[in-house]
Amino acid sequence: MTVYNHDQAAPYTMRWNLNIQRGLGRNVVLEAGYMGSRALHLYETRDSSATDINVNSIPAQYLSRSLLRDNATIQRLGAIVPNPLQGLLTDTALDGSTIALSQLLRPYPQFSGDSGVRIQGLNNAYSNYHALMIRLERRYSSGLQLTTNFTWSKLMEGDAAAKRVDSHAGVSYRERGPHAAFCVRRQLRSAFREGKRFGSAAGRALDALIGGWSMNGILTLQSGQPISWDDRNIIYYGRKFEH
What is the pTM of this model? Predict the structure, then answer.
């Protein structure tokens, strides 16, 4: 069953920033800045469905907290018990004499599976972003240009209710914490350009062969997980994906 949220508000984002710049010598500029944003009434999503939210997952208190496969909990949830719904849900798969315990623990046991009840158009999610940015630039001079940028940031997300169970992780947003899984906390990016022509002092014939070259490069270092783990079955030991 899918229900539609008729009480929607228009999503919007507020952004602000403050920068301070100072010259260091003739060709060097140092700039420091802060940037922040807050987005409200965002549409929620838990899986590939863009706006459909599953609200029929097994509550978190019945799920395992073990970092490894918990066979005892799996067997307990999969246990077959007498079906109190028999005779009430005729002509459905839930009308048998027995039923899995996990089905009876769902918020709406009369609807089958995680996707038995879904809400479409739910938009009470939010996000907050804060960043400190530092830039050091050496303007092009004597054939050399250098730009270095460092960013320290934090991206937080959640929903206003913070009580629904995540259909993938099996925990609520409040229990999981507000930090976004794809947040890159620290990033250092440096670019240089050596514009002086190598071999420019050589003779005309040699310059035609080896002259006219220049060199440039970009170095990027950042923290955070290298790929998304949302759709992968991994054993997670509680360490943060920082590198």
Answer: 0.59
